[in-house]
Amino acid sequence: MKHKRVADVMTRDVVTVRTDTPFRAVARILAERNISGVPVLDTDGHLVGVVTETDLLGRQARAGGAPGPSLWQLLRRKGFARSTAARTAADLMSASVVTVGMGDRLTSAAATLARHGVKRAPVLDDDGTLRGIVSRKDLLSVYLRDDADLAAEIREEVLTRAMCVPGPDVTLEVRGGIITLRGKVERQSMIDIITALTEAVDGVVDVRNELVADFDDTKIPPPPPENVGILHRFTEH
């Protein structure tokens, strides 16, 4: 089963600044590009931090600015350039950066962003080089898949290829990403496996499993360990 990876949905045209980029230049980039944060690279092009709107506004507030101004308001404020001219991205950035890998699954990347409470994250390749930016919106794009496309993948990859279930035995209904499975399979244990595999398909919102089984193999006691018989024969003598 093929899953989308971060590389499939990330933004590759990344706006960056250097560690020596002046405060005002960073603020102007964020304001003009309408972005809330920008990666900071060192002279070798390696990611060393991130500067956000919060970093900029917090610095200005500590310098005596009024609370709550926008970046554009700060840029137009008299004395802003003089008070911040000596500041650079290195002074402002957060060195602890939440990143994801190009090969990460979307579910894994989404969990990383949620766990750290960030809206977007730099994307690194296997060598640690910055390759893109991925946002929560990018990660949610997988749920925009067409229902017919979802049905085709579940039928082909889950029911036919993975579980070898004959087509007529199971019916598949997809509405808004919600999957309903009906029909009969050979063994009870197959039902949980089919459910798990279906839930793992990119774009599936929920799975409603109404399958029944010809045979309940979940209640069969496990066979005894191989050495039990040997131990029994040994103790008899």
TrEMBL record:
Gene3D superfamilies: 3.30.1340.30, CBS-domain
SUPFAM superfamilies: CBS-domain pair
Signal peptide: none
Residue ranges constituting the CBS domain according to the UniProt record: 10-70, 93-150
Domain (BON) ranges: 146-215
InterPro entries the UniProt entry points to: BON_dom (IPR007055), CBS_dom (IPR000644), CBS_dom_sf (IPR046342), Diverse_CBS-Domain (IPR051257), UCP036990_CBS_BON (IPR017080)
Record keywords: CBS domain
Pfam families named in the record: BON, CBS
Domain of life: Bacteria
Protein name as it appears in the record: Uncharacterized protein
Organism annotation: Nocardia seriolae
